[in-house]
Amino acid sequence: MFFVLYDALLYFVLIVALPYFFVIGLLRGKYLASFPEQMGFYKTPRGAHDLWIHAVSVGETLAARPIVDAILHERPATTIVVTTTTITGQTQARRLFPNATVTYFPLDFAASVKRFLRHHRPRVFATLETEIWPNTTRLARAAGVRMLLANGRISDRSLPRYRFLRPLLGPILEKYDYILARDDADRERFIEIGAPPEIVEVSGNVKFDYVADDRPLEIAPRLLSLIAGRKVLVLGSTMQGEDEAMIGELERFITEKNAFVIVAPRKPERFDAVAAILTGAEIRFVRRSAWSDGPADVLLLDTLGELSKVYRYATAAFVGGSLVPTGGHNPIEAAAVGVPACFGPYMSNFREIASAFLRDGGAVETKSAADVFDFASRMFDSEAAQREMSERARDTVEQNRGAAARTAARILELLA
Predict the structure, then answer these.
(1) What pLDDT shows up at residue 293?
(2) End-to-end distance of the chain based on CA atoms, in angstroms?
(3) Rg of the Cα trace of the chain?
(4) Of 43, 106, 114, 405, which has the highest C-beta tally within 10 A?
(5) Rounded to whole angstroms, how far apart are CA atoms 287 and 283?
(6) What pLDDT shows up at residue 239?
(7) Could you say which DSSP state residue 211 is in?
(8) Nearest to 416 by CA among 71, 69, 65, 100
(9) Is 306 a catalytic residue?
């Protein structure tokens, strides 16, 4: 009865939300193109896959790469279908997994999930983070699919809601073969919301196994010409509220430090808004998507998939989504290439990663835009301080690697 009511509720929500999604789809180019696949209708030929990996967006897709690499090293013939929820996740998945089938995760209607399972026929399902979908879990298990939840976490914000839903979540979590939690706190939280203790184990955080993309940056020669020997500050994955606050400080910082700054908004819909803020502040800037030769003090990185390569050029970096209460973003991309980074206090989505960097002195917590520029100034002014934090950041990443190999081992066990 629960699943009948759940399905009915999903259809009701879809019908109510359709006008909104249609308008946003027309204005921003989102939702409309992906909707057929999300409903389980595919243009690709049917085919059986050994492994189905679900990675919501860019961060999870990057985290999946070392897992897939480890699996293919041991089992090269493994066939894989990768699903994501977002457009940016699709772009990243197609780049990272050129030999896999890449498509959108089905909306959790019973009919959509059944069509997905019939079309792609996976043997093992591995979902990253905490994507718990009742129909997907129930129907995949009923079809004989082995189930694993990897890099599992329960955020502070989600825990009270999951506790309330324990009577419904418990029977769903019981269908998993393994739940691999990031740390002891997450393991206890999964058990608290109904997961059987015997299937929940601590594997570490897969995101520490991040593999830096060593391919050349397409715009490298032009970027180096634009930087013109200056030290570089990268403001990465910024969110609304952060851009406005920091761009207000940019002119002073650029002038005092003879700095070059790269601003990389997290969401594509923010690109034009940030360009307008830079224009209003009368700061010389160039957009990556509309490059023009000539002097500039700021590069607006309004493309997808290049931020990780851009970090190589940084003397210091700020990791966004953390000065505003959105949960933060991953500082490992910067740290893995030895860039001293700072982030704000709102890092609930990366709490154990942030704690590790702060504990080891591999990053600094900042409270405001002014603090960000004070941190960058210290890194710009002292090569010794910059070098020491760079080494601490790299060491933190190296000391916490290994979760991808442990996750891959469990997946290979289920594939055996």
Answers:
(1) 80
(2) 35
(3) 22
(4) 106
(5) 12
(6) 97
(7) -
(8) 71
(9) no
Is residue 100 a contact partner of residue 122, using CB atoms and an 8 Å limit? no
Structure tokens at 262: 């790269």
Return the residue matching tokens 């699709």. 90
Per-residue burial over 45-61, b = 16 or more CB atoms within 10 Å of its CB, e = otherwise: eeeebbbbbbbbbbbbb
SS (H, E, C) 124-165: EEEEECCCCCHHHHHHHHHCCCEEEEEEECCCCCCHHHHHHC
pLDDT value of residue 25: 64
In angstroms, how far is CA 249 from the centroid of its own chain?
28
Cα separation, 347 vs 329, in Å, equals 7
What does pTM read for this prediction?
A: 0.85
Give the C-alpha distances (Å, rounded to integers) separating 332 from 149, 380, 413: 22, 21, 29
CB 231 within 8 A of CB 382: no
pLDDT for 1: 67
pLDDT at 191: 97
Q: Which two tokens stand for residue 125?
A: 């399902």
Contact in structure between 275 and 300 (CB atoms under 8 Å): yes
Q: Are 177 and 146 in contact (CB under 8 A)?
A: yes
- C-alpha to C-alpha distances, 278 to 146, 239, 251, 349, nearest whole angstrom: 50, 15, 10, 29
- Written as six digits, the tokens of 37 are 């696949």
Annotated catalytic residue within 60, 129, 131, 352: 60
Distance, CA of 171 to CA of 302 (rounded, Å): 44
Residue whose pair of structure tokens reads 């999870």 in the numeric block? 60
Whole-Å CA distances, 121 to 52, 61, 69, 118, 124: 9, 21, 22, 6, 9
| Cβ(322)–Cβ(357) below 8 Å | no
pLDDT of residue 156: 85
Full strand arrangement of the beta sheet holding 259-265: 285-287, 298-300, 259-265, 231-238, 316-319, 341-343, 363-365
